Amino acid sequence: MKKFLVISLFITLPLFAQLNKTGRGVENAFLNGNSVPVWINFTGKDLQALQKPGFEFVSAKSLERRAKVAPEGNLIDFTDLPVNPAYISVVENIGVKIRRVSKWLNSVSAELTIEQLREIERLPFVSEVQLVAKWKTVHPEVNNEIPLLQKPLNSVANDTYDYGNSLSQYEISNIPAMHNRGFTGQGVVIGVFDAGFNLLSHEVFNNLNILAAYDFVNNDTNVGDENDMGEGSHGTKVLSLIGGFKQGNLVGPAFNASYILAKTENTDSETPLEEDNWIAAMEWADSIGVDILTTSLGYLDFDPPFQGYTWEDMNGSTARITIASDLAVSKGIAVFNSAGNEGSNSTRNTLSAPADGFAVLAIGSVTATGIRSGFSSVGNTIDGRIKPDLMARGSQCVVVSSINETGYVTGSGTSYSCPIAAGAAALLLEANPQLTPAQLSELLKQTASNSASPNREYGWGIINIDAAYNALTGIGNENSPADFVLYQNYPNPFNPSTTIKFSTKSEGIVKLSIYSVTGELVYEILNNFLPAGQYSVQFDASELSSGVYFYNLNINGFSQFKKMSLVK
Description:
The protein is α/β, with parallel strands linked by helices.
């Protein structure tokens, strides 16, 4: 009887009745089209697969990176397990063509008709059907490929490299000073996701080390322009800002790093299909062993008639691309994303996902004089977190031409400030490969120009990568490593309390804080002026869940992190 009643009810529902498995906007999307791109979310996975060795899921490089943030023996978790192939088969047998499979989100993306949606909703292993998001790319200035005619600037006499006209865009973040120390990104793997990369034959890329490249729009290995969907001039300019090298013209911060390139945006499309490409690319890059990701795309408004994310969704937990970004950070990947080019609003944020992520570093733009660019998006997130996180030069940046192999042009946008920030961070990671994303974030924030009073327009301010290096090594601080000792907590692992000891030979403001592996501040134990001496602090984690945490001690601007494990 119950089965009959359920089936009868389904049959008598209006065509667009809201069912409990249908996410926001899905039903309305069918009002203007025959098919709609959606995520189909599943329940459960085969947990026995966790017993398999980690190298069956990701590369050794990925496992090595994850070891910085996860306990030994737990480098692979539920999100790494494959989606149940039986679920996929059932969906395909309905006549649905699968577009992308996401093991992290335990989902597949596909285009459904309303009839297929009704069948999918009845499957017991389907938990929800949600829209796939697309962002309409907005650039604050149109770049008409006007060549640079002005006389190149001279680099500072003692600089190792000749930056030409690109000097000022890097100098504002002290990147040449790090180059002078010998840091150029060597050994760091950087992922760049964009709308493709044309003219990789440009002179600035002659020595660029590209480990892997894939076009997730057209499903091939050519990320340049072909007779297919998408145009790659934007990605070319972004890549030049972080990895380009041509003496006298443009010297990017991390020109000796290795790169993974992913084409994720279809610039020809008017349908919301890019979010799933980005998530697929993220899982792919993780499996290879990416350390840092820079992406100058954002997801806010769908093209009509599809309903999109709004400023009210910028809470770190609604947009699927944001959820995936924070997952990436939890696996040891530092994620940098443009804050957005939506300008300022006095009453609300103008962010675009995934810049709202808890652990994502949202990068805003400043001018040559350090003033916030008028187009740069502002925070805060709906749940009150400060965004953007950091700033870098994004106005009138020197970038490569996408039509002339020896040409250079200028352009503006948070699309350009983001790769500069990520490239700067790569230099710090080269200096200390064991830095976790949380540690990297803290070092960048505590040494940025607005660290004393972060706000919704500048965040913690303009990156000063040389100052971050000094904080990392103790150079230039009265409180040098010899005068400053942070001990390993004991016991470790612990439940529910542990002891943290430290000593200092200098008086000053002492901050002792606890961070999650995603970089979220979860508890502040101390924030007081203390005299020189030895100290022992009890930390009770009764209200926290099991997992890996970092404790950070900051005295007079010098900072140290250590890892601890809470096991309940």
